[in-house]
């Protein structure tokens, strides 16, 4: 009887080991990524959170939305075992961009962070910096011209701010919002955070290469963003608006939608999460729009 029990125990243990090996190899292949660049505009209500994963498996999160719901979205976008994110970008410290990132810091291992470093007295922003310091995360202050290059085809470039904003105070923090352009092969994305017309005007005057296939519409489609001249210069095929359903701000503004009439528009309040895949040559969009 003992012999039979021992045999059953050995087979059971071998089964556990086999499952463990399968899980390990699954983890290895999953972390290696897919053949496509993946960009997901999360549906997180009235806020912004954009997840980027390049084919090699490197992961970037731009903003985190207004609450911890971004953690659930990440768990769906990333393998269940993966608790590492290479880069967080906080475009500016408004709560609808920052709050979710704090929850991400608590639950994930983050390698580096890019932010502007502006002065902001809110408790949320103080907690953000406290956790960064406690976890000894590499902190980089955004400056136009900074580039993140992965392999031969992936390039993320900071276009704004033009000068260091560290320690500066802003009555309107949207004026400090980071703007970045992602180029992957023949496809390109322009991420604008909550940038408004003064920032757009600067970018036009600076000669920055802001033309892009996909435009992340500034400030949730507010009337204070997406000026006609800026839109003409970007000349997007597709526009994505991250916005909460029936939000109290009336975003997106009808005048912004009117300017985008010749552009294919995707809205998170109507489509839920919006996933864009690029194979270097072309891109495809996955969304369930109502």
Automatic annotation (TrEMBL):
Pfam families registered for this protein in UniProt: Lactamase_B
Position of the signal peptide: none
Gene3D superfamilies, per the entry: Ribonuclease Z/Hydroxyacylglutathione hydrolase-like
Metallo-beta-lactamase domain location: 46-245
Listed name of the protein: MBL fold metallo-hydrolase
PANTHER family: DNA INTERNALIZATION/COMPETENCE PROTEIN COMEC/REC2, RECOMBINATION PROTEIN 2
Species of provenance: Candidatus Portnoybacteria bacterium CG11_big_fil_rev_8_21_14_0_20_40_15
Hydrolase in keyword set: yes
């Amino acid at each position: 009887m003992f012999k039979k029990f021992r045999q059953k125990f050995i087979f059971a243990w071998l089964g556990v080991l086999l499952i463990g090996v399968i899980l390990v190899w699954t983890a290895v292949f999953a972390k290696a990524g897919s053949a496509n660049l993946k960009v997901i505009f999360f549906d997180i209500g009235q806020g912004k959170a954009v997840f980027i994963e390049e084919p090699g498996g490197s992961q970037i999160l731009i903003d985190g939305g207004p609450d911890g719901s971004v953690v659930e979205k990440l768990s769906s976008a990333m393998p269940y075992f993966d608790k590492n994110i290479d880069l967080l970008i906080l475009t500016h410290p408004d709560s609808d961009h920052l709050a979710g990132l704090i929850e991400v810091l608590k639950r994930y291992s983050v390698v580096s962070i890019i932010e502007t470093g502006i002065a902001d007295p809110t408790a949320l922003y103080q907690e953000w910096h406290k956790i960064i310091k406690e976890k000894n995360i590499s902190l980089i202050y955004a400056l136009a011209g900074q580039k993140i290059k992965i392999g031969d085809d992936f390039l993320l470039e900071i276009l704004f701010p033009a000068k260091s904003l560290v320690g500066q105070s802003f009555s309107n923090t949207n004026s400090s919002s980071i703007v970045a352009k992602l180029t992957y092969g023949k496809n390109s994305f322009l991420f604008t955070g909550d940038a408004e017309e003064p920032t757009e005007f600067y970018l036009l005057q600076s000669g920055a290469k802001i033309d892009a296939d996909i435009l992340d519409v500034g400030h949730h489609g507010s009337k204070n963003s997406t000026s006609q001249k800026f839109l003409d210069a970007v000349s997007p095929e597709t526009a994505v608006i991250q916005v909460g359903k029936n939000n109290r701000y009336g975003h997106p503004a009808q005048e912004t939608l009117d300017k985008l009439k010749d552009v294919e528009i995707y809205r998170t309040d109507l489509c839920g999460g919006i996933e864009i895949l690029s194979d270097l040559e072309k891109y495809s969009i996955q969304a369930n729009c109502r």
